[in-house]
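Today's session is about reading a structure prediction critically. Students often jump straight to the picture, but the first step is always the sequence itself: look for stretches that repeat, for charged clusters, for runs of hydrophobic residues. Only then move on to the predicted structure, which in these notes is written as discrete structure tokens rather than atom positions. Here is the chain we will use throughout the hour.
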Amino acid sequence: MASNPNRRAAYIVRNTNETKIQLSLSLDGGPLELLPATAEFDGYSSRDGDHPKREPPETQDTNTHASQISKLQHIWIWTGIGFLDHMLHAWAKHAGWSLRIRCRGDLAIDDHHTTEDTFLALGTAFTTALGPRTGIERFGYAYAPLDEALSRAVLDISSRPFFVGDFGFQGPMMGTLNTQMIHHGLGSWAQNAGVTLHVHVLSGENDHHRAESAFKALALACREASKRVVGREGEVVSTKGVL
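Below is the predicted structure for this chain, in token form.
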């Protein structure tokens, strides 16, 4: 990872019997080094039970459906679930994050473990990168539309994990992602990120639009809540004196 003592960044590895995940996150954007080569991502195309089309590309230079490299942000995401990648891409883009993720999950079973563990790893990376919970805005909220859909997200970097979500999806699937996993995934993220999070889709007819507007609202709320406040350096934003 590119070194900058003032940049809030983290590199996370999460390996279980169900998933192998590498994740690099910078809350302040900027360049990120490529995820390092490991045994978990070497020779994966020949393993039994794998879905070759859902496996990460051999190199991270490959321009994928969820990649965007600029001077301000490096985003490269591959979980094997296209719609999940799309939502994570939108989240990172509008939060101002740089984010690299690759995951090998047990997609021969279903999408549950891959989605859950990706959100857990991202939650761990968020709290690790954030560091001491001082000198930040702490609260963030935002509305985001996407055509006919409108969503609201409210976030408190509280160290009290709690999630409430209401999405109102009409169908069971979006691509190869079960719509139930959006609620479960965001709850998993809130748990490991140590935040209180409320996300509500207020209107919308199209499930894709409902989901994407929710993630964009979440991104904007994350950006606001984690913002450093000039003059508040070292201050704990709580009457308890601790977060």
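Discussion point for the tutorial: Residues 93 and 120 are 19 Å apart (CA to CA).
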